[in-house]
Amino acid sequence: MVFAALLPVLLLSGAVNSDVPDFSGVWVETQPDSGPPLRLQLTQSGSRVQVRISYRDSFPEVVFGIAMIANGTASWTMPQNCVARFRWPGYKYDHPGVNTFTLSLRQPTKPGEPGPLLVYVQETHWSVPCANNHPIGTERTQKILRRQ
What we know:
The longest helix has 17 residues, at 2-18. The chain is mainly beta and 148 residues long. It has a single domain, classed as Lipocalin (Beta Barrel). The chain is globular, with a radius of gyration of 19 Å. The protein is built from 1 helix and 8 strands; from the N terminus they run H-E-E-E-E-E-E-E-E. 11% of the residues lie in helices and 43% in strands.
């Protein structure tokens, strides 16, 4: 009798989870601009994704971020600091910037290419200038990674 009462809940939770993309695994940048490729280790539990980041073959124990999946995209935010030597006079540096990270999956564009691909986007919203190369505004970096 109890099982019959729980059946709709189990069916509903299975339907909800079937719409969540699978981000799990180790992902490696396909075409780094320079230096070693970006590597992400993604550990997924439902709609929560634990992110570790590295530019080496191994990953640190420290988690870089915890993303939540909504509408097929995993995202998280974290503050962006500006060290004292790069600060400009006349600005307040209590909250210099915010990073927004997003992860999404897409199918390869070339026929026969294995997929899916992971699209990693980092947008840094600067509220004050930092050094000579980070003006007030938004900087956007995008990288394409393949599951290893």
